[in-house]
Amino acid sequence: GQNIDQPTEMTATEGAIVQINCTYQTSGFNGLFWYQQHAGEAPTFLSYNVLDGLEEKGRFSSFLSRSKGYSYLLLKELQMKDSASYLCAVMDSNYQLIWGAGTKLIIKP
Amino acid sequence: DAMVIQNPRYQVTQFGKPVTLSCSQTLNHNVMYWYQQKSSQAPKLLFHYYDKDFNNEADTPDNFQSRRPNTSFCFLDIRSPGLGDAAMYLCATSRAIEGNQPQHFGDGTRLSIL
After folding, report:
1. How far is B89 from chain A (nearest CA, A)?
2. Which of A39, B16, B67, B97 has its CA 20 to 30 A from that of B91?
3. Per-residue pLDDT tens digits for B79-109
């Protein structure tokens, strides 16, 4: 079966750095997406990785290792508004998105 | 400027009473998706359209139907809602199905069943 694993919840301090991990087992691989979802709102696109390595976009970076079936999202200089769920999603060989359940990130002052 | 618009944001219906949720897009994207998302769970894909080609997920109940009368609009019909259908329903679009095309989501419709 296809599976995406990410921690259920994480807590971090305002101004700090946090890394949210995602491991996956899918039928094929056509890229990995990270989305941010605030409570009661729709997911918004953050990043896309299809090749190994780090993609940096402002305070957010995303890393991919295809051989390990592993990705992480790195958030720097955390702000209170970063409190949200972060969803990892992998596109399989049929171009279908397989979604993780999301990691709820709690930011404390 | 909302690009994927869902109406209404909140919908209340009675057990067994048909309900229709709507989605429109100004992105002129070829693909439109309907997801169901329950609290603290991953979004679950119900259907998607590539242009007019309809794709039903194998485990989507027959109680759920969809229509896409034109490129801009897509509807989700729940013929006889049960208590287990209470959820957030998300509409999304993408330029294409392949590769690096992210999905753009509307704000969702939260459906409650009385």
Report:
1. 10
2. B16
3. 999 999 999 999 999 998 877 889 999 999 9
Per the CB < 8 A criterion, the answer to whether B48 and B76 are in contact is no
User: A33 and chain B: CB distance < 8 Å anywhere?
Assistant: yes
Round to whole Å and give the CA distance between A84 and A74: 14
Q: Distances from the Cα of B26 to the Cαs of A34, A37, A40, A51, B33, in angstroms?
A: 23, 22, 23, 31, 15
User: Exposed, middle or buried: residue B1 (CB in 10 Å: 0-12, 13-18, 19+)?
Assistant: exposed
Q: Which helix (H) or strand (E) holds B13?
A: strand B10-13
Q: Looking at the complex, report in whole angstroms how far the Cα of residue A106 sits from the nearest Cα belonging to chain B.
A: 14
Query: Which residues on chain B are in Cβ contact (under 8 Å) with A48?
Result: 100, 102
